[in-house]
Amino acid sequence: MIELTLGLPAMALSIACAVAYSASDSMRKAVPRAAGALLALFYAFLLEAPILGLWLVLGGDYRLHPGYLLPGAAAAVLGLGANVLFMVALRRSPLSLMIPMLALVPVITALFSGVLIGEWPRVLQAAGIVFVAAGLFALYLPAGSGLSLRAVWNTFAREPGAKPMLGVVLLWSLNPPVDKMCLNYASVGMHGFVQLLILSSTLGVWLLLHGGPRGLRLPPGAIRPLAGVALTAGMGYGLQLAAYKMTLVALVELIKRVIGLVGALILGRAYFQEAITGPKVVGIAIMAVGLPLVLLG
Fold first, then answer.
1. pTM for the predicted model, two decimal places
2. Is the pLDDT of residue 109 over 80?
3. CA-CA 20 to 30 A from 143: which of 89, 114, 221, 283?
4. Residue 95 in contact with residue 26, Cβ under 8 Å?
């Protein structure tokens, strides 16, 4: 039964999931540009498959019911689109500017709920949405421009990774509830393993059709960061699904997003020499205050 509070096991799983995903983000950015986004994702998914396969075998739960077909297909479409756009965004723009945009995921989810099923944000959630918006405003505020909305918009529009990252936000806003639906018809291990098989086989067929065997050739220096992506993303995905089974999706997403915000700042500086500026620190701090209100308000 899902707990309404965050117990120690669920908290540990959620934190571990968040750390793994933060590491995966930085390793994705480290993959050489010579490896196209689709090629890099193909190998990342392919290398993740044994990790999720081991998870499945150790768990011993091979449950997969026919009702999985529709939500499973939806999860695969959302996952493929989001991952491709995510890789493109990280290659075009700094990690510390792209990852904070994922704070919009719970905001968009809350607004979708209002439009689609009439569940409009409550007062605290609305306040959290304002905080997240203010944090993004601060993040993209150019130095010396004052509180100019036009200057912020111009900075955002000029950032080459911003548009694909907005696509990621929209797709990942739909993903958690779809994943949770999938777990009604499949075990955690089976769902993760099946998704990786669908994604890797789809990309593999696409690459072969458009480039033949040469289309699967990796450039030098790509295998190490891709192996890192596979290990950390595979662990993160499995831990996330396990946490979903123990507590509310909102609690898992809160921990994942807040740690992701801080991780983007630290890892961006440590591995890609991205500057830690006042607007970044202030923007991320404001968003970290707003996220609990949006997710738990």
1. 0.82
2. no
3. 89
4. yes
